[in-house]
Sequence to fold (599 residues):
Amino acid sequence: MWKVESAEKYDEVDESASSSSPICRNRAATIPTADAVNLICGAKTQSNPENTVGVLTMAGKGVRVLVTPTSDLGKILACMHGLEIGGEMNLAAGIQVAQLALKHRQNKKQQQRIIVFAGSPVKYDKKVLELIGRKLKKNSVALDIVNFGEEDEEKREKLEALLAAVNNNDSSHIVHVPPGPSALSDVLISTPIFTGDGEGGSGFAAAAAAAAAGGVSGFEFGVDPNLDPELALALRVSMEEERARQEAAAKKAAEEAAKQEKGEQQSTSQDATMTENVDPGTSESDKKTHDLMDDENALLQQALAMSMDDSSSTVAVRDTDMSDASADDHDLQLALQLSVQEGAVDQSNQTDMNKLLADQSFVSSILTSLPGVDPNDPHVKDLLASMQSQSELVLQVSPKWRDSETKMS
Amino acid sequence: MSAESASAIHRNQVDLLDFVDWSSVECLNQKNSHSLPNALKQGYREDEGLILESDADEQLLIYIPFNQVVKLHSIAIEGPEDEGNVDPILNAIFKFPGPKTVKLFANREHMGFSNVNDFPPSDTVILSTENLKGKPVIVKYVKFQNVRSLTVFIEDNQSGSDITKVQKIVLYGTTVETTDMKSLKKIEDH
Fold:
């Protein structure tokens, strides 16, 4: 069968052409051809709404266009359904008809692509194929070849030559599928034919890959997207939301760090209790936090950062903290509010805290007492080193910040 | 015989470069590294290092739409000189890989190499080596009075080699309407 695609930048028209051969002993391979075609058609239509896909066969009586390029997946699946497998394929004629079908596509802005499923041997010689390939390249038609069926060295060489003739900037690909127990569609999923679709198709591919990975356990989140699509979707969405939130918070932290370079100072002792409660997603203006995704490390960083924070910056960040954390944790909110008040009122403690936290040994003892913290962790070590250097800076800056602090409160 | 004196002869003819609709410009069978903007765009086309080259064979099909209707007066196609070959005989042959036979089609959209011979061209131009140095060729003006898009089909080149090289393509003509739709502002109700 030939799959002919035409697309505009990202959207494509595909025409799928496949042949099946009686030489292919492993009958099981013939049925998955239909699956593979369906998979690819689905991926293409999903990846861009303007994509259109058509299907034609080239074995048997002659080249026959089953479906002209359409974005209606149902039509394509329907025509695949009644297909008979048999005969030898006529590669040259198939490609030419596919090219013609592409030429008469409705949306001329679409890019053109042909996907060939070559099961039976190739009876044309290399020269002819190269000529065809050059003609395709000239008309800017990309070509993907799926070489399956019996292992045939000559066929392999010919198809490689064809690909070389048509390939322009790596837009064309070839996949050799060895005969074996694994299904054609499974092998195809990991190939650039599939993954060349871009992000849209990859979602489809990922779900299919999860299914192919074998058994119920292979599914993402342990839920079969086919059996319970809503649940699978909800799980995936919530994961992504969490990830996006963490990334946004980390980004914010990086931005604030850029803004307030010198503003790192000690703050109140309430921070120690806050450590446990603070949501890692609201990490603060320590420059080094933005690399950490690990919860415990983030917590630790948070604690140290907060204790080193400039009091006014702490207030600013805490304001944002409170809006972020509002949905999450009542205790957290209370703790935050308390510490804000403490910070505003209690200035005299600061210099003491400076000295305390500047003391390396004190800090390491705190660290070891915290659950799940490894003082040998490189991140922790970095932070400790930075604290050392910044404690002096802190003392100088404090008077100015104190004033603005009181204004804010 | 320079390009300047040639264009000075044709008064009121402007370079139609400003009216080209760049978003829809297409070129078939060009090499990715040596593409159409090298020959068409201001600045690129002056640079002798930047040329448009054909890929699979020596033909090129260039589709140039305009953002308004224009009249085409003349076209100048410059080709590079290749001094690569040492052999004097070969040198004479391969010296000019620039275009020779150029067919122009007015207002034909999305042509392909297969149907390019199905329509009679609006004009056919055979370039001499002088033209390749920049002398514009005057086209059949009557055929190009109302041009929305121009398709340039380069059929073969001077040296008969497999790769056609184009240094520069300049289109001279005038506009038909002087209204620039983009600068039209909405009239407020008084």
Remarks:
- The longest strand of chain A covers residues 111-118.
